[in-house]
Structures are given as C-alpha cells and as structure tokens.
Design brief:
The protein has 175 residues and is α/β, with parallel strands linked by helices. Helices cover 41% and strands 20% of the residues. It has one domain: Rossmann fold, CATH 3.40.50. It is built from 8 helices and 7 strands. α1 crosses α2.
C-alpha cells in the first residue's frame, strides 16, 4: 500500500478524485475534530454535481446521518445508510433501484468492526466478501474515512489500494 500526506479539504478532495482515476479503493485518515462531514460534503458535491455520479454513504450509526450529514439527503444522487440496515435487512430492499458509482464509508474502522463481528457470529463471510456483494460493478469506487490510525497488520488495510493521511487543520475553510 502506498502512503501520501495532504493538507487542506480542497487538496484532500482533489487528491482523492485524482487517485480514483487509477485506484478503486482508497483509505483516508482524517484527524479527529477536523469536520470530517465537511470533507464528505465536499466529495459528494463534486461527485454528484461535477461528475454526475451516484454516491452511497455508509455510516456505522444512524445518529451520524442526523447529526452531520442531513444536508446531503435532499440530493437524489446520494443515499446515506446505517450499516446495520445493510447487515440486517435485505440489501436489495435497502438499495432498491440505486446503483452507486462511489461508496464512501464514514468511520471505516467502526463499520469494519461491526461487519466483521456480525459475520464472525454467523460464520458466513468476511468484510472483503461483504464488499464484493455490495459493489454493483467493478468500476465502483470505494473511499473509507478513518479518524484514528490503524495497525499496519490490520486486515482493513488489505481491502484498500492506497492509504492517504490527511492533515487538515481545524481552521482551513473549504475553497
């Protein structure tokens, strides 16, 4: 896995967009208290308005939608869903007639842990197989956002092509 460092929301967004031209799975480490929801909104607005893509945002808990991502719900090219709904309901019902071009995981480590825990209990599949079932076609991009570093030995790293360390300061506004 390659490693890069970035500084602003705009640089982070631009690098993610550029990397998605050659990579399909990107893991982004964003420091705590940097308004991660601002980065998510910036990325989603770019994908839906500039590239006319459909985006699926997967969060570990429903309160994150209400707390931070409510403004994105009005966009018909965006679907935001709590991972529990994907795990405990039929995927087809949850994503009926919605085929995303990009899937963004908020709080990737927590989401990964929830999926792995469910599948370990049921001894069905692991996270990689879950992703394979979730992804509608091979050109679907995946971006995972983390707020804390993970161990280099983590299975989570094996899922992604590249890891980006974003050093967004709190005071940098979106440009």
């Amino acid at each position: 896995m390659n490693y890069q460092a970035m500084i602003t929301y705009e640089e982070t967004k631009n690098n993610i967009v550029q990397l998605l031209e050659t990579q399909t799975r990107i893991l982004v480490n964003v420091p705590v208290v940097t308004r991660k929801s601002t980065l998510i909104s910036t990325l989603i607005n770019h994908w839906t308005q500039t590239e006319n893509k459909k985006a699926l945002i997967i969060v570990p808990y429903e309160f994150i939608i209400k707390q931070n991502l409510q403004n994105l719900l009005a966009n018909s090219n965006v679907k935001i869903i709590d991972i529990h709904k994907l795990l405990f309901k039929e995927k087809e019902k949850v994503l009926y007639n919605f085929i995303p071009d990009v899937i963004l995981f908020d709080e990737m480590a927590r989401t990964f842990a929830l999926v792995e825990a469910k599948f370990l209990r049921e001894q069905e599949i692991n996270f990689s197989l879950f992703l394979d079932q979730l992804i509608p076609h091979s050109s679907t991009s995946i971006v995972g956002l983390l707020t804390s570093p993970i161990k280099k030995s983590s299975e989570l790293l094996n899922i992604f092509d590249i890891q980006i360390d974003s050093e967004i300061p709190q005071h940098i506004p979106i440009t």
